[in-house]
Design goal:
single chain; mainly alpha; about 0% strand; transmembrane helix; membrane; transmembrane
């Protein structure tokens, strides 16, 4: 006891400071663990990009296969020449649309001609060649139409 009857407060042991800090770190760690485990998963990485030109090559191969199927369907009697002309037009238009990003699948011949895009000239020429077989009074030659469609697809770069 001191001379005036007052005792100074007792100090805490350093162990309690360490215990308190450990408890605070444990609570913070728990919250961090809960937060990390409940976050949405990151999106998967995008697939590797095709080297330049591979996309168009794949599209071209698919379009040429489809053109061959259309010709075979007419030869085997599963389709009519008029229907073949329509399908050839749709195939070439879809190819150009996919390869260029220009929405040509619903453009009329006049709209294609007015587009002012030199890249669309082969498509415009092909659609012009296919129109009589699609809409004319007489069926056109499917072989000639298919050859025109092949030229348009193979000339695209």
């Amino acid at each position: 006891m001191g001379g005036d009857g007052f005792y100074a407060p007792m100090g805490y042991s350093g162990v309690w400071l360490v215990v308190g800090l450990v408890l605070l770190l444990a609570v913070a760690g728990w919250y961090l663990l809960v937060w990390a485990r409940t976050r949405p998963a990151p999106p998967p990485p995008p697939p590797p990009a095709d080297p330049p030109g591979v996309h168009v090559i794949r599209l071209r191969e698919g379009a040429l296969r489809r053109i061959d199927e259309i010709v075979r369907d007419v030869q085997e009697g599963r389709s009519t020449p008029r229907r073949a002309h329509q399908e050839l037009s749709a195939t070439v238009r879809q190819f150009v649309s996919d390869a260029s990003g220009v929405g040509v699948t619903t453009m009329t011949l006049t709209e294609l001609g007015r587009s002012g895009q030199p890249r669309l000239r082969p498509l415009t020429d092909t659609v012009l060649a296919l129109y009589p077989g699609e809409f004319g009074p007489h069926d056109g030659s499917v072989a000639d139409a298919a050859e025109s469609a092949r030229r348009a697809v193979t000339s695209w770069s």
